[in-house]
Amino acid sequence: xxxxxxxxxxxxxxxxxxxxxTTRQLExxxxxxxxxxxxxxxxxxxxxxxxxxxxxxVGRNGLGKRTMMLRYLEHHVDTDQQSHDWCYVANFxxxxxxxLLKLPSGMGTELKQDMExxxxxxxxxxxxTFEGDNFLERAESLKNEYGxxxxxxxxxxxxxxxxxxxxxTITTPGGYRLVAMNGEEPHTAETFQELSEDERxxxxxxxxxxxxxxxxxxRKLADWEQEYAEKQQALNEETxxxxxxxxxxxxxxKYSDLPDVVEHLEAIRGDLAxxxxxxxxxxxxxxxxxxxxxxxxxPRRYLVNVIVHQKNNEVPVVVEDNPTxxxxxxxxxxxxxxxxxFTDFSLIRPGSLHKANGGYLLMDAIKVLEQPFVWDGLKRAxxxxxxxxxSLERELTLSGTISVExxxxxxxxxxxxxxxxxxxxxxxxxxxEFAELFRVTAxxxxxxxxxxxxxxxxxxxxASLVVEKDLLHCSNRAVARVIEHSARMAEHQDRLSxxxxxxxxxxxxxxxxxxxxGAKLISDTHVERALESAKYRSSRIRDQFYDSIxxxxxxxxxxxxxxGQVNALSVLSTGGFxxxxxxxxxxxxxxxxxxxIDIERDVKLGGNLHSKGVMILSSWLASHFAVNDxxxxxxxxxxxxxxxxxxxxxxxxxxxxxxxxxxxxxxxxQDLAITGSFNQFGEVQPIGGVNEKIExxxxxxxxxxxxxxxxxxxxxxxxxxxxxxDGEVVKACxxxxxxxxxxxxxxxxxxLLLGKPAGKADAKGRYPKQSVFGIIQQRLETMREHERQEHxxxxxxxxxxx
Length: 802
Description:
Layout: H1 36-47, E1 55-58, H2 65-76, E2 84-89, E3 99-104, H3 107-130, H4 133-163, E4 166-172, E5 175-182, E6 185-186, H5 189-194, H6 197-254, H7 259-274, H8 276-280, H9 285-292, E7 305-308, E8 317-320, H10 325-329, E9 331-332, E10 335-337, E11 340-342, E12 348-349, H11 352-356, E13 360-364, H12 365-370, H13 374-384, E14 386-387, H14 392-396, E15 409-410, E16 414-419, H15 421-430, H16 432-437, E17 440-443, E18 447-449, H17 452-468, H18 476-490, E19 495-497, H19 500-516, H20 524-538, H21 540-550, E20 561-562, E21 565-574, E22 577-591, E23 596-598, H22 599-602, H23 608-625, E24 633-639, H24 652-664, E25 668-669, E26 672-674, E27 677-678, E28 684-685, H25 690-703, E29 712-716, H26 727-734, E30 739-743, H27 746-754, H28 772-797
Parallel strand pairs: 1-16, 1-17, 8-13, 13-16, 21-26, 23-24, 26-29, 29-30
Antiparallel strand pairs: 2-3, 2-7, 4-5, 5-6, 9-12, 10-11, 14-15, 18-19, 20-25, 21-22, 22-24, 27-28
Helix pairs in contact: 3-6, 4-6, 6-7, 18-20, 19-20, 23-24, 24-27, 24-28
């Protein structure tokens, strides 16, 4: 068998395929590379005018989901779409239900400023005017006029009473009393009793008549009082109109295209006269509440609370990194004043949904689901197409604290959730509303095909990262090295990784080393230095394993031969850094019923996949050596010095070779290691982590006395396309010191490792005597013959045995 040629161990990026000297000559990509499917899904979702076409972007972290969305929205958003300002204002009829005003972008702040100007003028002008001589004279004149009329009317009754020897006295404001007189003094109870019955009756009759007249007079007084109040109100309104009327008229004219604003301005005109005392009473409460709520000192009922304002007519794109209930749906603040909790419409605060209204809201799915009540609230808002500001405290408790209930905001938003596939599948399965509201799935690729065209596209992607992150430009050699590393990340010679975050990190670190060296460009040496530095920082645990190999604590052989012992290969991961290790797999066999004991499984250290591999191995053995007769050799298999769980079937080929060696007694070469699984027909199947496994055995050989030239690794034929080996290993292969062998069938692996042909059965199922399988066959036949002889001898001794 031949080892692999150099060009199959590593697919280099040829410089002639990159027609540029540096990335400065390349046009940076406006889009994310290789995500055509996801981009088409996003384009479709954003173009759909109907509800429910929100997007769930599926893919692991670092694929550039958020970057792609933001770039796409930046370049493809419909600029004709109208954005709006949203304001809350007082509802003078229902103070607990503030009114919502919708204005074109930029107009909300204008209205707020216009109202502040009007109010700051009125705060000065109203006290000046209403405390000025002109107004006070008119008010005094009006008061005197009605006072005179009231006095005259009461005087008439008093005169009539006087003539009848009765006095009219005023006891309290609005309280009148008719008293019978005894000369100049009013009668007392005693003196009144001393009068004759006729005199008493006469007085009572007179008083009754006078009371009727008095009641008529009091009714007149009440009507005049009302009339006076109306005239006083009319005077107030007339005076107010002189001060504010033309300004309110100007505002009505300015906002004439917005009927809701005009209606509110007219409501203010009517409300000002009703609430003059706000301007005239110089109390500190307004100032204290304004100070506490960080507002300007002005009458709060005339404030305009702009909850969303767009500076220009851009479509809003909001990224919410902390989607708590209040951050999303808004809330109503409270102010404490003199021990009393106070709130009003001016303390309504917006959430991300308000800010993204008319545009796009981007969030992380896991963060949304982690926050209590947010997911249900979000679905409710999307279904009802409105944002209701509900205090979370009121939803959670039974207390009936007084608060404002703002008018709901009509919602028109496209939502994008970023998440992994597991979350997406859980939502699909357990939340029936999810599929209705998030009808579009943008599925992000992990890799793209590697070709001359895609390499150039990838180079432009690198150029766009360089520009975006403000890094030094890369030489074409540096780009080639990044492309090669990307193929290594994708674990395929003809694929490139689309994990943008990792590529961005590599470029940042390469930029750091380039600047440290005072270079003007990032070259391939700087990229190599960044990769080496990252590997060194993460390899402490790997080096501890290597130390145990070097000092003999871990038993590994890289030379000589041994029966029933094979170097298998495994991959360990320590938080993002993966490395390969040699593991000794051993097999022993003994007289038995033909079963294979998997020690790892029996002690519960073997995972399901590992157990499956051993069971396939058992069935393969039985199909080769126990088709017609039982197999009287049992065997046991184990990973030596393994103290943790083993899973995966990539060691099943190594286990088979160890077993075949033990059954046949033919020793296994220790200078070779093997990885791969196989099926019941003996075909070798691909495994993962092939690069790390080869590099792990290469390092083991170096640690155990250096390379001898005969050492190497057997890998499945189907894994050849995954090879992107480390430069040091490729260099050793070039010098003939190390080899990589591809195997397609179990027999090839056995032949190479045991140094004898595995053997091919003839028409009668006989294997050649000198082949490995032939040796096993002969051994089993000898045992069966011995078994038959023993059985015949027992029958001869005791004829009753059947």
